[in-house]
Amino acid sequence: CLERKQNAIFLAAPSVGKTHLAISLAIAVAQSGRRCYCGALADLMTSLEEAKTAGKLGRRPKILSYP
């Protein structure tokens, strides 16, 4: 997905290594000189809710899509 500039989403049962895989992929992306964002969906939703409450939801997609 690096060459095609696509997102990667990992869905699987708990404790099978999704976070480890995501961190490894993020490190490889960063080492290649590219920007990346790695986070949990729950954290993303919280961030969006907080931005909405603060009246800054319009800026959030731009910030999140920058990497």
Structure commentary:
The chain has helices at 18-31, 41-53, 60-65. With 67 residues, it is mainly α. It is flat.
Note the topology.
Blueprint: H1 18-31, H2 41-53, H3 60-65
Query: What would you call the structural class?
Result: mainly alpha
List SSEs in N-to-C order.
HHH
Report the strand count. 0
**Radius of gyration computed on alpha carbons:** 14 Å
Strand content: under 5%
The shape, in one word, is: flat
Specify the number of helices: 3
CA(first)-CA(last) distance: 14 Å
Mean residue pLDDT: 86
Oligomer: single chain
The share of residues in helices is: 40-55%
Largest sheet: none
Low-confidence stretches: none
Summarize the structure.
This protein has 67 residues and is mainly alpha-helical. The chain contains 3 helices and no strands.
Essential attributes:
single chain, 67 residues, mainly alpha, 3 helices, 49% helix, flat
